[in-house]
Specification:
- By secondary structure, this protein is α+β, with helices and mostly antiparallel strands.
- It has a domain at about 35-130: Immunoglobulins (Immunoglobulin-like, Sandwich), CATH 2.60.40.10.
- The chain has 5 helices and 8 strands; from the N terminus they run αββββββββαααα.
- The chain has helices spanning about 1-35, 140-155, 160-195, 195-205, 215-244; strands at about 40-50, 50-60, 65-75, 80-90, 95, 105-110, 120-125, 130.
- Strands 3, 4, 6, 7 and 8 form a 5-stranded antiparallel β-sheet that branches. The protein has a 3-stranded antiparallel β-sheet with strand order 1-2-5, with no helix packed on it.
- A hairpin with an 8-residue loop joins strand 6 and strand 7 (about 120-125).
- The protein is rod-shaped, with a radius of gyration of 65 Å.
- It starts with a helix and ends with a helix.
- The model is unreliable at about 25-35 and about 160-210 (pLDDT under 50).
């Protein structure tokens, strides 16, 4: 009976130790998996830094395993351009400057060092797809140009008004043509003034500036003398008749 009781106690002890060791193994396995570096610990995002596009790769790896992250621009399922590569270690983030275009596709590859404890050599799945809207909207610069294009018809609208002065130009020419005719008549007026010296000569003759003025003056004096004599003789004869 004593032997049987000992064996039962031993069996219980063994069971307890087995369960404890199994639990410890599971715990260590879970802890080891938690500390392992895995491709699932990495993620990528295309975002904007102001007006500039960037690609940010984040790591949640708690094993501090050094890895190298490489970014490729994809075109029809193939690598079209290598954007760049950077090392990363531990839970952190790295940034790639990339002026991505809307809906552009990028492949992000993660690879551990050759001598690292954990081995990773894979791409982040799925591939990174850039947003449908670019960081720098060109509308502020292009809208003024678009607005100028409508304004050009507006600027062309005054063109008829500019043509109006052109239509007025003939009227100015017409006004200039009468002035030309007036200028042609001006010499005619000068020619009409030319005979004025002859008229002036006739006026001088009438005022006695001619050589006949002396003779006219003599005749006038003679007439005065004759008239005075006639008056004298008339008065004398009238006095004689009164005495008789």
């Amino acid at each position: 009976m004593a032997i049987l009781s000992i064996s039962r106690r031993t069996a219980r002890t063994v069971r307890i130790l087995g369960v404890a060791s199994a639990s410890a193994a599971l715990a260590l396995g879970a802890a080891g998996n938690a500390l392992a570096c895995d491709i699932k610990d990495f993620s990528a995002e295309a975002k904007c830094d102001g007006d500039n596009g960037v690609i940010v790769v984040k790591s949640t790896d708690s094993s501090n395993t050094p890895v190298t992250v490489t970014v490729f621009l994809e075109d029809k399922g193939a690598d079209a351009k290598k954007i760049g590569e950077q090392p990363i270690k531990g839970a952190t983030a790295i940034t790639f400057a990339e002026d991505w275009q809307p809906n552009a596709v990028y492949r992000i590859h993660v690879e551990t060092a050759k001598n690292s404890r954990f081995k990773v050599n894979a791409d982040i799945k799925p591939n990174l797809v850039a947003p449908a809207t670019a960081c720098k909207t060109e509308t502020p610069t292009e809208e003024p140009t678009d607005s100028t294009t409508p304004s050009q018809p507006e600027s062309s609208a005054p063109a008829p008004s500019e043509s109006a002065p052109e239509s007025e130009a003939p009227s100015q020419d017409a006004s200039s043509t009468p002035s030309a005719s007036e200028s042609t008549t001006a010499p005619a007026g000068a020619e009409n003034n030319a005979p004025s010296p002859a008229v002036g000569d006739s006026n001088l003759a009438e005022t006695g500036a001619d050589s006949n003025t002396g003779m006219i003056a003599g005749i006038a004096a003679a007439l005065v003398v004759v008239g005075g004599g006639a008056v004298f003789f008339g008065l004398r004869r009238r006095g004689a008749n009164s005495n008789s």
